[in-house]
């Protein structure tokens, strides 16, 4: 376990025990001595507050026993833990994407449309595919070619096509057309039945593009 992972695990333990206790402190009986030493180290970084003599006296009265050590998160420790649980994941180096994922490079206008799409997750009847919002949040930008890099599953590729189709239907077709040309995926809304969509619902065909159909909600 790397140092930052170990630190996050200690902060998480303090947070859980602090929330479980009405007074918000983690007491000496709740952590083993090695973990207490790790907490002491985190105090030096401003992430943890150790109970002073007055605090320990109050805790001793509440616990009806001597409390010799207690700790709790500082606001900085709380925010470090919150950020650490949601920190951007290291993306695979070029050419080393997971076998079930494809490297996708989006131009800024496509990425802007995709951000709107994932931002509406709670309001859409056909929400973005699982994990797509995380990919959008952690995407990196190659400023040399002005492309946003994501590693997507096939399901997420279809979901991107749907988001760009919504963008197309409300103003600009360029983003969806480009995605279809480059990755062979376009969205075509299908009826809930197996009869397929009416002609009026079909997107103009993109040469060489596969079609991903999503049923209407």
Extract low-pLDDT stretches.
191-217
What's the total number of strands?
8
Distinct helical segment count? 8
Shape assignment: elongated
Average predicted confidence as pLDDT: 80
Radius of gyration: 25 Å
Helix content bin: 40-55%
What does it look like?
- With 217 residues, this protein is α+β, with helices and mostly antiparallel strands.
- It has eight helices and eight strands, in the order H-E-H-E-H-E-H-E-H-H-E-E-H-H-E-E.
- It has helices spanning 3-20, 33-44, 53-63, 75-85, 108-119, 132-138, 154-169, 174-183, and strands at residues 26-27, 48-50, 70-73, 102-106, 140-142, 147-152, 185-190, 210-215.
- The strands form three sheets. It has a three-stranded antiparallel sheet. A three-stranded antiparallel sheet has the order 4-6-5.
- A hairpin with a 4-residue loop joins strand 5 (140-142) and strand 6 (147-152).
- The chain starts with a helix and ends with a strand.
- Residues 191-217 have low confidence and may be disordered.
Key terms:
three-stranded antiparallel beta sheet; 8 strands; alpha+beta; 16% strand; 217 residues; disordered C terminus
Give a brief outline of the structure:
The protein is an alpha+beta fold. It has eight helices and eight strands; from the N terminus they run αβαβαβαβααββααββ. The strands form three sheets. The chain has a three-stranded antiparallel beta sheet with strand order 1-3-2. It has a three-stranded antiparallel beta sheet with strand order 4-6-5.
